[in-house]
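[audit] Reproducing an earlier prediction to check determinism. Same input, same settings, fresh worker. If the tokens differ from the archived copy the diff job will pick it up downstream; this log only records the rerun itself.
[audit] input (103 residues):
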Amino acid sequence: MDERSRKASLEVLTESARERVLQRAIEIDAARGTPVADLRAAAAEAGISTEAFDQAMAELEGESATVARPQSRSRPRTLWLAVSVVLALAIAALFVMRLFPNP
């Protein structure tokens, strides 16, 4: 662990700061894109059934929103981003709840 990591592990953030850090991390991850396998794992962790995830993927593919083909900003891409952000927020919320349990 380097000096910066050691200092950061001792810091205590306010709730507002925690939310800002997690929200920004989600934005950065969303801009990079999400592999389907990672999204599938996140969905399972969030309690989303395999069948529901597969149906959502099939619907998305039916709208011609493929990962391999670059596309302009469109409804399918916006939907994909929204789903990714919601799942990332759910995972972040679970992480924060485990890290900072209510007394």
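[audit] rerun output stored. Observation attached for the diff report: The chain is about 70% helix and 0% strand.
[audit] end
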